[in-house]
Design brief:
Radius of gyration: 23 Å
Distance between the termini: 77 Å
Strand order of the largest sheet: 1-2
Shape: elongated
Pfam family, one: ARMH2
Protein name: Junctophilin-4
Number of helices: 8
Oligomer: single chain
InterPro entries: ARMH2
Number of strands: 2
Largest sheet: 2 strands, antiparallel
Length: about 160
């Protein structure tokens, strides 16, 4: 009985007295984490902030992209080049690099088009290999998946 009254109210009475048209909920069109991604992206691009704070913002962008789904990943993809630029900076600490790499991984994990952006950037791949060399990891094997066959790069430190 209550459901019939509610349906009657929704159909006839509410539309007659309501001046605003309500938008139906659309989960695929949502901008779930957009404001937070933009706020942290501003921090990543702000060169006045300490590098550690910028790296923490990069990690937060990655977390938001990962938890927000493909749409949040699309908004976070604007900051991939900024994260790669932080990785290119000389004399960055291992903690900063780890935070930036965590953010980059979070952005690239959900959205397939984001996965192709760092792959197309040869400088990004060289930077990642140089990070491995600088960290004195000894013997390290890096497997880069490239079609048609994977490339096996062995680095002896």
């Amino acid at each position: 009985m209550f459901k019939k009254l509610q349906a009657c109210y929704e159909t006839y009475i509410k539309t007659f007295f309501s001046s605003e048209k309500e938008e139906p909920y659309n989960p695929t069109g949502s901008i779930f984490h957009k404001q937070k991604v933009v706020r942290y992206g501003t921090n990543v691009r702000n060169t006045q902030l300490p590098l550690e704070q910028r790296a923490q913002a990069a990690k937060n962008i990655g977390l938001l992209a990962y938890t927000g789904g493909p749409n949040a990943g699309m908004y976070a993809s604007e900051y991939i080049q900024d994260l790669i630029a932080i990785l290119h900076m000389p004399d960055t600490s291992a903690n900063v690099r780890i935070l930036v790499l965590q953010g980059l991984c979070g952005i690239c994990y959900i959205n397939y088009s984001n996965q192709n952006k760092p792959q197309q950037d040869v400088i990004c791949l060289k930077t990642l290999v140089s990070i491995l060399i600088q960290q004195n990891l000894g013997k390290c094997t890096l497997l880069l998946s490239k079609r048609p066959a994977p490339i096996d790069i062995t680095i002896n430190g």
